[in-house]
Specification:
Strand content: 15-25%
Structural class: alpha/beta
Order of helices and strands: EHEEHEHHEEHEHEEE
CATH superfamily: DHBP synthase
CATH architecture: Alpha-Beta Complex
Oligomer: single chain
Radius of gyration: 16 Å
Helix content: 25-40%
Number of strands: 10
CATH class: Alpha Beta
Strand order of the largest sheet: 1-8-2-3-7-4-6-5-9-10
CATH topology: DHBP synthase
């Protein structure tokens, strides 16, 4: 199904429908502050496996990240966040960034990379954050399968392409074409893995 959700003020009933779908092991396509993402509940292993199958990759190579409601979620699913690092995260979030951080024990084993790291996001998008808030934990997220194409900005076209593969297409309006900026914070000097929508300089 396709669900039209107001991006400024998401309807609570719609968010409840989406959350119930995720708790039942469903897979959704939903808006972020950058591109549309493919998502599921981090604790639903079958849904995680389904997303990896759609991406044609094993979980540790599928570039999966957690969409969090706020910074306290970040500190729950990562460990060893120093005061300067926390300050930097607070400065950039919510925003179009994915921060690679050491994974805590709260991260399901299937989702920890071999290096025991996890990509964490707090997007500047009311729909994505409302879903994560209602779910009471992060949404597992990754980009749509295949190359990023112009059609991936149009919810109706995305729905036509993926309607038989996902449970809900959350239409939050036109999406972007540039993914988040990915910063590896597991080293002494933060490293830009991918330059995307978020501005970044070495002084950040």
């Amino acid at each position: 199904m396709i669900l039209h959700v107001n991006s400024e003020n998401p309807n609570a009933r719609h968010i409840k429908t989406i959350t119930e779908c995720l708790l039942d092991g469903g897979v959704i396509i939903y808006p972020t502050d950058t591109i549309y993402g493919l998502g599921c509940d981090i604790l639903q292993q079958k849904a995680v496996e389904k997303i990896c199958k759609l991406k044609n990759l094993p979980p540790e190579k599928a570039q999966l990240s957690f969409i969090c409601y706020n910074l306290s979620d970040l500190s729950k699913y990562s460990k060893g966040i120093s005061t300067p690092l926390y300050r930097m995260l607070k400065e950039h979030l919510p925003g179009p960034y994915t921060f690679i951080l050491p994974a805590s024990r709260e991260v399901p084993k299937i989702l920890r990379s071999k290096k025991s790291t996890i990509g964490l996001r707090v997007p500047d998008n009311n729909i994505a954050r409302a879903i994560a808030h209602q779910l009471s934990r992060p949404i597992l997220s990754t980009s749509l399968p295949g190359e990023m194409v112009e059609e991936y900005t149009d919810p109706e076209l995305i729905y036509e392409k993926f309607k038989n593969l996902v449970d809900i297409m959350v239409d939050g309006g036109v999406g972007g074409t540039i993914p988040s900026t990915v910063i590896d914070c597991t080293k002494d000097e933060y490293e830009v893995i991918r330059m995307g929508a978020g501005e970044w300089s070495m002084t950040s």
